[in-house]
Amino acid sequence: MTIRERQEEQEKSLLAPWAAHSSETAGRDRSVTPCDLRTEYQRDRDRIIHCKSFRRLKFKTQVFLSPEGDHYRTRLTHTLEVSQVARTLARSLRLNEDLTEAIALGHDLGHTPFGHIGERTLNDLLPDGFRHNEQSLRVVEVLENRGEGLNLTREVRQGILSHSGKVMPETVEAECVRRADRIAYLNHDLDDALRAGILQPFELPEDCLHVLGHSHRERINTMITDIVSQSEGSPHISMSETVETAMTGLREFMFERVYRNGWRDPEEARCDYVLRHLFEYYCEHPGEMPDEFVMIGYRDGIERSVCDFLSCMTDRYATRTFQELFVPSAFPAF
């Protein structure tokens, strides 16, 4: 018996009846030889960690644009926090932690430069619209590995797609990630907003804090323990009405005071300006994109390929490319 087979047997004896078993995966688009050491979901996790899109997350905005402070979250640290919360839920509920981790690590691979600002701009520019969860799926199916994709299992791909938006999760592990994403961003965005002075502690909604807790640690602990207590013995993830209501109230507060408040309107306008001009330029000069995106243009159309190229950019790469294309260079001294 190989190490992988031993792990698969352990899953059958240890996991909840409704948990996903790696030996029963719906499989990949292209078959691969089984690994002696790793289960299929472990291989997916490793493929995501080693891909280029994952590395680029460290230079993509979460909420605060290209922060100079060392402690503000980026899209990469957000992803790691989602993974931590989701894995805790999965482990506590006897679900497949490897599947949960793979989905969590891949859920934002398709996010744009400048965070949701960039997503809104590309959504306006692409005729069929742009949604980062769909783009994350496109990254692992089409864009990575020079057009071959990562060839992930169906369960991981569906979990990536359903972490937000209208498509609902098909596995309990994907439900964990969907919940963990909201838990993570609400708490760390609040933490960052307090650090930046956008919010003051006395401004936070007391009715929500009374239920959830007055510190970052307390709020995360309340949300996770509530989900575990409400979901134990059930094939679905749920929250108590009290905690759900408080969490919804905190989310509404964050949208009103942080996400849509207007404190960063000038920077948002600049980000929108940069992406719109890059989009227009590459639609007119598609041959200047890397070859892999030129090929996508032949197959899926120029606008689609340009959106793929722009969404792959980091904040700093998009800014530098804009400067190279549109900002005059100083005449060199002789």
Structural account:
This protein is an all-alpha fold and about 325 residues long. It is globular, with a radius of gyration of 21 Å. The longest helix is centred in the middle third of the chain and has 25 residues, at about 170-195. About 60% of the residues lie in helices and about 0% in strands. It has a single domain (about 5-15, about 40-265), classed as Hypothetical protein af1432 (Orthogonal Bundle), CATH 1.10.3210.10. The model has no long low-confidence stretch (mean pLDDT about 95).
Distance between the termini: 72 Å
Number of helices: 16
Question: H/E series, N to C?
Answer: HHHHHHHHHHHHHHHH
At the fold tier of CATH, the topology name is Hypothetical protein af1432
Strand content: under 5%
Low-confidence stretches: none
What is the alpha-carbon Rg in Å? 21 Å
By DSSP, the count of extended strands is 0
Structural class, by secondary structure, is mainly alpha
Q: Can you tell me the overall shape?
A: globular
Q: Give a quick account of the main beta sheet: strands, pairing sense, barrel closure.
A: none
Mean pLDDT: 95
Q: What is the helix content? A: 55-70%
Instruction: Supply the CATH superfamily name.
Output: Hypothetical protein af1432
Tell me what the CATH architecture is: Orthogonal Bundle
CATH class category: Mainly Alpha
**How many separate structural domains?**
1
